[in-house]
Amino acid sequence: MFRDRGVEYKTPEQIELMRAAGLVVGRTLELLRATVRPGLTTAELDRVAEDHIRSSGATPSFLGYGEPPFPATICVSVNDEIVHGIPGSRVLAEGDLVSIDCGAIVEGWHGDAAVTVPVGEVTPEASKLLRVTEEALWKGLAAARPGGRLGDVSASVEEHVRGQGPFGLVEEYTGHGIGTAMHQPPDVPNLGRRGRGLRITPGLVIAVEPMVTAGSPRNHLLDDEWTVATDDGRLAAHFEHTVAVTERGPWVLTALDGGEALLGPGWGGPPRPDAV
């Protein structure tokens, strides 16, 4: 299972188990996206997520993770908070951006994904930030192809963000390998050079997660020892998917359609039944 600098490569059967975890995550995020509204507290979102994950026969990945132990099922980061926000009494307001990061475990295998959701009507600046960040994610996912290099994924994210305007791209926090643990080698930076880094081969499973800011990417850790916020107080967005590399290409395990709609002919999921 392990080769090349401690990277855990998965068999097709193990990827199927990760798909089960990914679907729990994907469906939980869809539920949370539909639940977000002005007047809701971030703790209420967390309760919805935990109930859905457990009722799906899965276990939350984040609850009790790390040091100090993360105290909730999901990370909820609002406006200038980039990642790792702790749910609590904060009330969502019209015009907020709320980033929701979710992980679940099924039979020992992890899925991990994130979305940033507008609360009601948001500014054109905020809408563009969301669009650019999500597009950058899919550029990175599309580059996770057999025969490439991990730097191709990083460069695809960076090139898209840089080409869209004066956005900030967070360097200190990266994507990662994922499997029997939520965080594994290799790191997957959101900045890089094509043709560099680990060779991408079937069985590699990674989480790609661009974190983009409306201003400077400089950031700091809050006193809760988890939440990361922008130094300049400008908005931030975070999108993430778990993707498996198959012989056919990238299979996005946390996307409900596996990525078929957005990856098109490069989609790496199972062949359609009528194509077998």
- How much of the residues is beta strand, in percent? 25-35%
Largest sheet: 5 strands, antiparallel
Number of helices: 5
Q: What is the CATH class? A: Alpha Beta
pLDDT averaged residue by residue: 95
Order of helices and strands: EEHHEEEEEHHEEEEEEEEEEH
List the helices and strands and how they pair.
Blueprint: E1 2-3, E2 7-8, H1 12-35, H2 42-55, E3 59-60, E4 74-78, E5 81-83, E6 97-106, E7 109-118, H3 124-142, H4 150-162, E8 168-169, E9 175-177, E10 184-188, E11 205-208, E12 211-213, E13 219-221, E14 228-230, E15 236-238, E16 241-246, E17 249-252, H5 260-263
Antiparallel strand pairs: 1-2, 3-6, 4-6, 5-14, 6-7, 8-12, 9-10, 9-11, 11-16, 12-15, 13-14, 16-17
Helix pairs in contact: 1-2, 3-4
What does this structure look like?
This protein is an alpha+beta fold and 276 residues long. It has helices at 12-35, 42-55, 124-142, 150-162, 260-263; strands at residues 2-3, 7-8, 59-60, 74-78, 81-83, 97-106, 109-118, 168-169, 175-177, 184-188, 205-208, 211-213, 219-221, 228-230, 236-238, 241-246, 249-252. The strands form five sheets. The protein has a five-stranded antiparallel sheet with strand order 10-9-11-16-17. Strands 3, 4, 6 and 7 form a four-stranded antiparallel sheet that branches. It has a three-stranded antiparallel sheet with strand order 5-14-13, with no helix packed on it. A hairpin with a 6-residue loop joins strand 9 (175-177) and strand 10. The longest helix is centred in the first third of the chain and has 24 residues, at 12-35. The two termini are 28 Å apart.
